[in-house]
Amino acid sequence: MATEKAGEKGAKTEALPVEDRRMVFIADLVLKFLKVKQDKWQKCVSSEENHQVLQDFLDRAEQRSLLVSLTAGGMLQAAKCLSSSSPGTKAVYFMKREKTALTVETMSEKLTWGHMPSRPLDLLSAIDKLLDMLVSNSSNHTEWPPGVCDDVARNVHFLKKSLFVVSGQVQGHTLLPLPMDFERVEQAALEIGKRGGMVERCIIHSLESAVIEWSRQISAVLKIDSSGDLLEGKNPTPDTELLFWKNRYADLDGIHSQLAASKVNKMGKLLEAAKSSYFPAFTNMQLNVSAALEEAKDISIYLMPLKGLFEDMESMEFPEVRRQIGPLMHTVCLVWANSRHYNTPQRLILLLQETCNLLIQQAQMFLVPDEILKGEVSESLLKVQTCLEILQLFRTTYEDRRVNLAEYQRAGNLVKPWDFSPVLVFSRFDCFINRILVIKDILLTALDMLKLEKLVIGAVRGSALSRQVKLLNQEFVDTFKFITEKPYDCLDLNNTEFEEDVKKFDLRVDDIERRLGTIFCLAFDDASGLEPTIKVVDMFGSLLERPLVAADAVSRYPLLVTVFEKELNCCKLVYDKHIQLAEELGSPVVSKNMPPVAGGLRWAQSLQKRIQTQFSKFRQLSCPCLESEEGAKVIDKYEEMMQLLDKYSTSLYETWTETVSESSQFNLNLPLISRDPATKLISVNFSPQLVSLLREVKYLEASKTVAIPETAMQIYTTRGQLLQYVANLELTISAYNK
User: Fold this and answer.
1) Do residues 342 and 303 lie in contact, with contact meaning Cβ atoms separated by under 8 Å?
2) How crowded is the C-beta side of 560, counted as CA atoms within 13 Å?
3) Residue 471 in contact with residue 525, Cβ under 8 Å?
């Protein structure tokens, strides 16, 4: 890689502010090496993410590397380290010579930079070839002393070996470098029988050195654990676990193939023949790799079915994830029950933690932290509730599968229980649920408190109280804006500022609730009668469920019971007077022009409706006033009153139905015409009882509250014909009496 130092900058740099000149220093080099126009750099630094990476490199001592690459789309992208560069892209690297923040004066001294080609591995290959040519061509070192040649050869071999290992690491493989002068090793392996097991000490030394180095490499590979990201404080998803075991299997398979190669077998034979103390280590190394390969293969096979499930969870809309949770946990249980190497608490806990992280990630994308508190409250609340249902479903599904693991037992193969603490799995998950519950509480509070805008109080002091409510509404709107207009991520569990703001929000809401409770008590006391009182309670509605409002309102609920009891007593008094007057007159007291039975039933129904309407409103109130002992007595009194009215209606109706058929038939059988003995005049003999019957049926049919006797209905259906007959007879008799 070409490396250059910065020269002096032109006058344009001097004209810029000090804080900008460092960025211009970087920009000039990037534009020079990558041969792009100024507008590309402007677009790069306009990105908040890129600008932050650049600023961190300039200001933070611990940030020692910077890579600015040209993406396939022709855009410049800043990254913190070389590994962040996408393969096949051009890039410029910057490295600090020491841990320090950069100033305009120290940029040239403290920085090393250069151009990185699109394929860095080609450089390693070129260096490898160059070293080969340097050492293999004897004309390059004819004048070197023998000791120098050997020393250079060893250093070149060490460098080639390092390049070989690094090239493998870049590709994600572990490559085991062979010892120096391996031709001599192969020759010694061929001659071992002739020499009676004697091997040159220098060859054994090189083989033992190789075993030591391989052991170090393989030990490092075997020590790598998939929980690394989690232990570093990151929040990996199941993709990390699945990819880890896929790569581990591929890497161990490559190592196993290298150890099983004929060249390595020859090394083993030589070590065994020489009775080297490193031969057991060599054998154990092979056994450890074989065991680790078997483990990785088993785990990779059993984790493969989970890959599709996790990919579906990531691609689908979050509300649809609920149908994926059951199959996912079922598959996890199958892995636990059947895999010989993945059925350990440590590995299952890790997989479940990463699954929790995936659900948290998907929930955050669904809720959109920047919008959840700023959008329509009812819509946001619906999304929050959906989110909670899915997260809690995963929690309950886990518990269900844990309890029913015995279902996965096959052919006498015992399934180990999940006897680890759920806290190990759900620590972060539960914290996230608690954060969602906090947001839900904020939204529920807003949903209640924003109703203050439409709350208008009547009665004598209504105007003054309504003005106070309006002030409370404005105060809450300002309080709500205080927490919704903050730029932070409210779903970030590390965001302590949000937690502090929630505490302030709750304190202000508590104060508003206390004052609202006082306003309710004043409005309640100002109402006269049951209906206005119920209207006040109904108007406040769900606001009365707010804890501090309810604390004040609870003292007024017994008064509501008292008012309703007075209403019942009033209705009972009306009933008693009606019954007494009916007994005195011998017939029910009814409204004008109403027949006795239909009128009596209408009166009972209207009184029942009066009680029922108020009682239904009373029961619909959110207040617990009817649950008290006094409330229970009032309910008994209400039911007693309803029974009295039902009994009255039933008695009136049954008395009428028992006599209507017989009396109607009797009146129909009377002569059509009767003569007055005194005046000798005749008249139509149409009984008033039949007229009353027709009126009763007419009103009862209109009310549709009771069944009409068949005889009465038959007469009523022929009313038109009967009235026509009566009219004709009236005309005839009128002419006759003249």
Assistant:
1) yes
2) 31
3) no
* Residue 488 backbone phi and psi in degrees, to 5: -75, 170
Q: What angle do CA 494, 421, 331 make, to 5 degrees?
A: 90
Are 685 and 673 a contacting pair, CB within 8 Å? yes
Query: Tens of pLDDT along 604-625?
Result: 888 888 888 888 877 776 566 6
Residue that the structure tokens 């006082």 belong to: 518
Distance CA 354, CA 242 (A): 11
Starting at the earlier edge strand, list the strands of the sheet with 3-4. Answer: 3-4, 111-116, 90-96, 65-70, 76-79
Domain residue ranges of the chain, discontinuous segments joined by +: 3-118, 455-555, 558-665, 668-737
- pLDDT tens digit string along 84-124? 445 557 888 898 888 888 888 888 888 998 887 766 666 66
Asked if 185 and 265 touch (Cβ cutoff 8 Å), the reply is: no
| CA–CA separation, 617 and 638 (whole Å) | 14
For the CA atoms of 76, 81, 82, 88, what is the dihedral angle to 10 degrees?
-30
Report the length, in residues, of the chain. 738
**Residue 473, token pair as written in the block:** 């509404």
**Is the CB of residue 156 less than 8 Å from the CB of residue 148?**
no
Distance CA 91, CA 567 (A): 87
d(C-alpha 233, C-alpha 698), whole Å: 84
Nearest by Cα to 599 from 702, 710, 691, 707: 702
Residue 144 vs residue 195, higher pLDDT: 144
